[in-house]
Amino acid sequence: MSISRRQFLLAAGGVAAASIVGFAPRLRAKEHWLVSACSNGKGQHFAAAFDLNGRLINQVTLPARGHEVIPHPQKPGHALVFARRPGEYLIEANFNTGEIVKTVTPESGFHFYGHGITINNQLITAENDYHKGRGAIVTRDLNTYEVTSSVDSGGIGPHQIALMPDNKTLVIANGGILTHPSQPRKKLNVDTMQPNLSYMALDTGQIISRHDIDNPKLSIRHLDVSQSGQVVAGLQYQGPKTDLVPLAVSHQGKDKLTYLSATEDVWRKMNQYTASVCIDNNTNIAAISCPRADIITYWSLESGQFVGEQRLADGAGLTYLDGIIASSGKGLVVKTSSDKAPTRFDKLRWDNHLGHIQAGANA
Q1: Which domains does the chain have, with CATH numbers?
Q2: Percent helix, percent strand, percent coil in the chain, to nearest 5
């Protein structure tokens, strides 16, 4: 079911139409910048800060393709940029000046998996201990970037991680895929992969629970967590191209992961691949991007049902800022709850993830 942005929010039981139409730069543009890894048509890679009015705040050049960009919690206008897996860098970027403040490399025998979070004065990253063939959750001091601990992730190939609402538990999407820097994009264990969703106690580093998926070729990659603690995760299928498989799961306090519900036509259209997951707690809707299908899909948190889709060519990045905002590899940025035309950045192609940071001196 293809729907307009306005129809989507009305059908989802969202807030009144008068308060949702159009991006709200009057409310938030001076408070936040959007951030994303990106590239140009010349094979150069960057991380950029920008707004939906089409203003590029600043960009920094990356040594290789980036993946997720998250805010530095202590420095307005600063962000942490993670290399795409198997990543060899993590940088602190100052978008006030367009400078790289710090470049961090993984410890010997490790590589980054493209994602991380900050908690208080700590930076927590998903990494691969490739000498031992295990996933690792690595904690660093946010001021010095020195490693303070490294613990098992509960599986292989930890990708996106998130803090649960109790502020004590980490949820980990263990994608199950083993990689090695010597063969950068090759998946080394497709025949034996065992993806799972794991929960870790932050104070002890112990895995509290682990939830395997019943089809081991469905790699759990990206996730988001609702205010009530419901986890929604997007999947990427590593099996035959002709297979018809579900591509999203939900979990909240149960033993088993629950597949979200959609028709075969929807699963087929999603083309065995999802990119970003973003939850709108105001409407109880989860958005899951499917760039290979050129659509953003929407799902009810309450029922687990597919409720609609929007077309966005190569749409991948998603973030929540007064509504869900999407970005695409075609240089487009759009607030999905608005009928306003997308903002186009002609010289940049946005990568798979979109975020936002506290605006700095150039706001």
Answers
A1: 5-358 (2.130.10.10)
A2: 5, 50, 45
